Structures are given as structure tokens and as C-alpha cells.
Automatic annotation (TrEMBL):
Subcellular location: Cell inner membrane
Protein name (Swiss-Prot/TrEMBL): C4-dicarboxylate ABC transporter permease
Region of interest (Disordered), residue spans: 1-20
NCBIfam families in alphabetical order: TRAP_fused
Function: Part of the tripartite ATP-independent periplasmic (TRAP) transport system.
Topology in membrane: Multi-pass membrane protein
């Protein structure tokens, strides 16, 4: 009798609870290794890990303890990323098993190129000694024949050679070693010259030609690293802008301008007017700091907790894994600098589960792409875009974070109801209780949210972004001691090493975007674009906004969010401000469209990354993600017609606009998914769409009209099925 199982309901319930998994998500915090990324071993692993740790620690020290002169700090910031980038990322594919590495003549040619590269670096040292000894400037023939021309020739040759030089994944190839030396030589020259009165001569005929030579080599190095870490899209756009510098004088109409010589342009593009300007200012301060913060969160396994928390909170709802993807990707996306990177980190878990409960592969990938993209507009961090906006506009960061709140809620509400209505229409189930973690268990670790709470509290208490970010980073290490993943010295060093490698892509992208910003500011093309928008606004402001939307999306296609916004803010936002739009509204307008370019066909990086995981067609996935994220294409227009969406207005106005716009978003999702408390026909969908637009618009009369439409369709649906036979909905 003693072995007879207990049949009581209480005992069965306890048994079921015992089977409930502690966690589902594991490995969300693991570092994503790209296909062209090296995997070092032995002494090379120790060397590059040490370099990454030193690089991250340098920024923490410079930002908090021992600040450097601004230009010098930014030059070292870019140079360090170039050295790490060429160490970690190959210019060609790796040697496959059974293949032979590069031919011996390529290796010897690479080592031959190393000689003039080292000679250029030696000249930098000699120049420093000469200027330290009291010289006012360097002899032109030394700058040209002993430093500049050899540096440019070697940089170009090593870049081309690296495209065909195949090496094993565990070793750095000789061409990359040459490029590292060239990066040191270029940065070293800038550090020598920019710390003398010669810095004031940039952009004039009195500027030493060495500045132009170092800038040309530095630009080549930045473009090549950007190609390796972010693809060709941004590189091609940058080359088009560079071509415009010299072709512009021959172009007709508003595109023409007087022209700049090679020397004059390049002597100024590697200053705070271009590469060392706003984009690098942000990447060298706010972005690198929050990458370190994100790395500390990853080291303490907070990402796993975020996703498990989302499963516990939303997993049982119909279409549960899709709703988990929304919450988890929103939480992870705001601390992740790229939409595609967020898709890879969370989508590998959520997409298979969505397919398991009934979502087609196309929809599963599209939902993850739309949710991950939304993380870039989620305050308080907003994928670093908010920091660039604060730098460019001068608007306090806290104001930007508050203004982003209602639009972010509207976006995620749209994605949520799109998912919910699709699940209802297709009769999908949620996850069973024994398939998800127990909320009561996870709530005991809610202290893992403390670093983000501390960050928000510090910002609104008046601390600077740098100080708040540093406090949040330190708190992540402290809080980890309450969790199973305690951070000791090895874990902290691992987090710093992870931050150094994670930062390479965004720093390269920001420096490359700085080239475009430099072209815009030095040629005046931005002002001419503003005059074009002003002319369009004379016919219709809506037409001008639509044109600005198209340009923002076009500029952002294939680019990471930060670079997409930086370029759009330089080209489009000034034009919108000139036609009378408030700076905050203008910048949010272009920011939103730069973000959603990641899910806009035909070049939708986030959708393509999701399609790679789901196995669906990439173009079909991008079209579906465009549909799911449709609200993000409508809401920015409402910034103009209803500024209360950005917290500009009385409390009552903000509340009314927030509530009615949310109801409008629900109606929009219903119209797209053909479900509103039941299936609906095409004519009803059209009426519902009109009502949704009326409510999103934000006027009192339009709100009332939209509300009347929604209530009327709801009442009619309660009385008779408008879409044909009712279908059963599984719980």
C-alpha cells in the first residue's frame, strides 16, 4: 500500500507543477559569431582578448576618470576599432576543409607591403620628434613621398589583396596585419598634427597635404571595415556621396555646387565636420558605454531571464510564442544596436516555437522581425538612436525618451493585435502550463531588472547619460551576485572583452556615416535638399512629408539603424525644419522611417535575418513584416498633425490622443487581419480602416467619427456574423 500513487487532485496538481520547466530560454546571451569572424585559439586568442579588454577599459577610464582632448579621444576610438576589426573580420572567405590556403607569393607580397607601412609609421614618430623639438611644420616632400603616398598605396594594395587572400579561421592573415599598421600610421599622424596650431588650417590652402593623405588612407580603411561588418549598402552610398564631391560642379540644377579640390575636401573630412563629427561623438561616448552595459547584462545572463519572463507572462495567450517574441524582442532590442542582431539573438528561440503552435514560416519570421525592429524605438535606450538625436538636436536625452513613449506603445500595440487577431482567425492555441516557466518562480528574480530601473531613475534624477550608464553597468555586476550567475573578475573581464568585439560594427558604421555627413556639410547639398522640400511644401506639406519618408527609407535600406538615422538626420531633417516643423517632430519623423527600413522591402535586413532562421522566402517574409509593422508607417505622420503624441501639449490632450490612437491601432490591426471580434468581409474591413485612420489622426471630430465606426461594427458583429460562418477559436 505504501507504494500506491496518490490520486488526490492536490497531489496531481503538485506533480504537474513539479514538471513545469524552470526556464525555456538558454543561450540568448551567447555571443553571435558572424560567418566572416575569426575564432582565435592559443596565444592569438589571449592577444586579441587583451586588446578588446584594453579598448573597453580605455573608454570607461576616459569617460569617467581621465578625459582626453576631444579630437584625440575620437581618433584613438576609431583607430582601436580598425585594429580590432581587421583582427577579427576577414576580407575574404575562410579556407574550407580540404582547401589550400593562399599561395606563397601572396604571403610574401603581403610581407613586402608591410615594409612601406612600417616606414610610414616610422615617419610619424620622426615627425612627432621634430614638432616636439620646436618645428612649426613638416617639410612637404617628407609628408608626400615618405609618408602620404606610400601610406595610401599600401592601404589600397593591402585592401585589394585581402579580398583574395584566404586563411584559416584561427589566424590573422598578413594583409590584415598591414592594414592594422596603416591604421596606426594614419591615426598617429592626426594625433601629432591635430595637437599643434596646424589643426586650425584644415579646409584651407594652408593645411599640410599630409592631413589629406592620412584622411584618404583613413577613409579607405573605414570603408573596407564597414564592408566587412555591415555589408555593401552603406559603402556604396558613401562612395556615391564621395563621387558627388568631385562630380557635383558638373551636375545641372539644384545638385550643382562650386566644387572642392581633393586636398581641401580631405583635409576637412577627417575633422569634426565629418568623420570626427556627431556620429563618432556619439559612438565614442554613449554608444560604447551602453555596449559595455549590454555586455555586462549578457555576462550576468539577464537576456535569458528577459525571455523566460516574457514566456511566463504571455506564453499561455493564444499564439503565445508570437506574443513572447514581442515582449522579449522589445526588451532585448532596446539594448541591442541593430534590428538584425536582435532577430538572431531572440528569433532562434521564438521562431521555431511560433511555427510549432501553427504560424506559417513566413509569419513567424515576420513577427520576430517586426518586434525586433520595434526594440530600436523603445525607450529608454532606443538602440542608441536617442543619443544621436540628443547630440544633433541639442534636446535633452530625457525629453527624447519621454517623447518616444506613446509612439513605442502604439507600435507594439499594433504588432500585438496583429498577432492576436491572426491567432484568433486561425484558431491557434497558447502554450500549455507545463511548457512554460512558472511566473511565481521567475518573479523571485525580478531584481535582475534593477540595472535598467537604476538607469532610468538616474537619468530622471538629473545625472548625465555617461554617469547614469556607468552606474547601471556597475549595478549589473552587483545584482549578478544575487543570481546563479555571479560576476567575478573573470566574468567582468569577459564582459569587457565582449564589449570590445561587439562595438566594432557600430563604430565602423558611425565613422562611415561620418563620411556622408562630411560630404553633406562641406558641399551644402543638405541646404539644397531643404530648398527642394520647401518648394514641395508650397504645394502640399503632406507631399513634402511623403517625399521625406521615401528618402529616409531609401537612405536607410541595408544599413544599421544608427547609421540610417545619422544620414537621414543630415539630409532630410533640416529640410523638414525649414518648412516649419518643430525639430523634435522632424527628427522623430526621420528616425522612425530610418528604423523601419529594416522591415521595408526590397532591402529589409531584419526580415532577411528572420527568414534565414524560419526557412521562409526572404521577400515574402519582408512583405509580411511590412504589413505587421504598418503602424510605424502611419504614426510618424501623426507627429505633425498631433504633436501631443510626442508629449507636447496639456495632460488631457496627451491622454486623449494616446487612448484614441491606441483604439485606432486596434481597428487598423483588425482591418489588416480581417478579424474584429469575429471574421469580417472586405467592405467592412475598408470601413474599419477608414475609422482607424480617423482615430489615429487625433482631431476631436475625427476621433468621434472613428469611435462611431468601431462601435457600430462591434454592435453589428454581436448581432450577426459579417464575415460568413463563425469559426471556433481554440483557447
Amino acid at each position: 500500500m505504501g507504494n500506491t500513487p496518490d490520486k488526490r487532485p492536490e497531489a496531481q496538481a503538485d506533480s504537474a507543477l513539479d514538471k513545469t520547466p524552470e526556464t525555456i530560454a538558454q543561450g540568448v546571451d551567447e555571443e553571435v559569431v558572424e560567418g566572416n569572424r575569426r575564432l582565435f585559439s592559443g596565444w592569438m586568442w589571449w592577444l586579441f582578448s587583451a586588446l578588446a579588454i584594453v579598448y573597453s577599459s580605455f573608454h570607461l577610464m576616459s569617460l569617467n576618470v581621465y578625459p582626453l582632448e576631444t579630437w584625440s579621444f575620437r581618433i584613438i576610438h576609431i583607430c582601436g576599432a580598425l585594429i580590432l576589426g581587421y583582427g577579427f573580420y576577414t576580407g575574404a572567405r575562410f579556407v574550407a576543409e580540404g582547401e589550400r590556403p593562399a599561395a606563397p607569393w601572396m604571403r610574401w607580397l603581403s610581407y613586402a607591403l608591410l615594409i612601406p607601412a612600417l616606414y610610414s609609421l616610422l615617419q610619424v614618430f620622426l615627425m612627432w620628434r621634430e614638432i616636439s623639438g620646436g618645428a612649426m611644420r613638416i617639410a612637404p616632400n617628407v609628408e608626400t613621398w615618405h609618408f602620404g603616398l606610400p601610406l595610401i598605396a599600401v592601404s589600397a594594395a593591402a585592401i585589394v589583396l585581402s579580398w583574395v587572400y584566404r586563411q584559416t579561421r584561427e589566424r590573422v592573415s598578413p594583409p590584415e596585419l598591414v592594414l592594422m599598421v596603416c591604421a596606426l600610421a594614419s591615426a598617429g599622424y592626426f594625433l601629432v598634427i591635430y595637437n599643434t596650431p596646424l589643426r586650425m588650417s584644415t579646409g584651407t590652402t594652408f593645411a599640410p597635404m599630409g592631413i589629406s593623405y592620412a584622411a584618404i588612407a583613413g577613409t579607405l580603411l573605414i570603408l573596407e571595415l564597414t564592408r566587412r561588418v555591415a555589408g555593401l549598402a552603406l559603402v556604396i552610398i558613401s562612395l556615391i556621396f564621395l563621387l558627388y564631391v568631385f562630380a557635383g560642379p558638373y551636375l545641372p540644377g539644384f545638385l550643382g555646387y562650386p566644387g572642392l579640390s581633393v586636398g581641401r575636401f580631405f583635409s576637412q573630412v577627417y575633422t569634426d565636420a565629418g568623420i570626427l563629427g556627431p556620429t563618432t561623438a556619439v559612438s565614442s561616448t554613449y554608444i560604447i558605454l551602453f555596449i559595455i552595459f549590454a555586455a555586462f547584462l549578457q555576462a550576468s545572463k539577464v537576456g535569458d531571464y528577459f525571455v523566460n519572463f516574457a514566456f511566463a507572462a504571455a506564453g499561455r495567450a493564444r499564439g503565445g510564442p508570437a506574443k513572447v517574441a514581442i515582449f522579449a524582442s522589445g526588451l532585448m532590442g532596446m539594448i541591442n544596436g541593430t534590428s538584425a542582431g536582435n532577430v538572431v539573438s531572440t528569433g532562434s528561440l521564438t521562431i521555431p516555437l511560433m511555427k510549432k503552435v501553427g504560424y506559417p514560416s513566413r509569419s513567424a519570421g515576420a513577427i520576430e522581425a517586426a518586434a525586433s525592429t520595434g526594440g530600436q524605438i523603445m525607450p529608454p535606450i532606443m538602440g542608441a538612436g536617442a543619443f544621436i538625436m540628443a547630440e544633433i538636436t541639442g534636446i535633452p536625452y530625457t525629453e527624447i525618451a519621454v517623447a518616444a513613449l506613446i509612439p513605442a506603445i502604439l507600435y507594439f500595440a499594433s504588432v500585438y493585435f496583429m498577432v492576436d487577431f491572426e491567432a484568433a482567425r486561425k484558431g491557434m492555441r497558447g502554450m500549455r502550463g507545463d511548457e512554460i516557466p512558472r511566473f511565481s518562480r521567475l518573479i523571485k528574480q525580478v531584481y535582475l531588472f534593477a540595472p535598467i530601473v537604476i538607469l532610468i531613475a538616474a537619468l530622471f534624477m538629473g545625472y548625465s547619460v555617461i554617469r547614469a550608464g556607468t552606474l547601471a553597468t556597475a549595478s549589473a555586476a552587483v545584482v549578478s551576485w544575487l543570481s546563479p550567475h555571479k560576476m567575478g573578475i573573470p566574468s567582468i573581464l569577459r564582459a569587457l572583452q565582449l564589449a570590445g568585439t561587439m562595438s566594432i560594427q557600430i563604430i565602423a558604421v558611425c565613422a562611415c556615416a561620418g563620411i556622408i555627413v562630411g560630404v553633406i556639410s562641406l558641399t551644402g547639398v543638405g541646404a539644397r535638399f531643404s530648398s527642394l522640400l520647401l518648394g514641395l511644401a508650397g504645394f502640399s506639406q503632406l507631399l513634402a512629408l511623403f517625399f521625406a519618408m521615401c528618402i529616409s527609407i531609401l537612405l536607410g535600406m541595408g544599413m544599421p539603424t544608427t547609421a540610417a538615422y545619422a544620414v537621414a538626420a543630415s539630409v532630410v531633417a533640416p529640410g523638414l525644419i525649414n518648412i516649419g516643423i518643430e525639430p523634435l517632430i522632424a527628427h522623430f519623423f526621420v528616425f522612425y522611417f530610418a528604423v523601419v527600413s529594416a522591415i521595408t522591402p526590397p532591402v529589409a535586413l531584419a526580415s532577411y535575418a528572420a527568414a534565414g532562421i524560419s526557412g521562409a522566402n526572404a521577400m515574402q517574409t519582408s512583405v509580411t513584416s511590412f504589413k505587421i509593422g504598418l503602424a510605424a508607417f502611419i504614426v510618424p505622420f501623426m507627429f505633425f498633425y498631433s504633436p501631443a503624441m510626442l508629449m507636447e501639449g496639456s495632460g488631457l490632450q496627451i491622454l486623449r490622443v494616446g487612448v484614441t490612437a491606441t483604439l485606432g491601432i486596434v481597428m487598423l490591426a483588425a482591418a489588416v487581419q480581417a478579424w474584429f471580434f469575429g471574421p469580417i468581409k472586405a467592405i467592412v474591413r475598408l470601413i474599419l480602416l477608414v475609422g482607424a485612420v480617423c482615430m489615429i489622426y487625433g482631431g476631436i471630430y475625427s476621433d468621434l467619427a472613428g469611435l462611431a465606426v468601431g462601435i457600430a461594427i462591434f454592435l453589428l458583429q454581436r448581432r450577426l456574423p459579417l464575415g460568413g460562418d463563425k469559426i471556433s477559436v481554440k483557447s
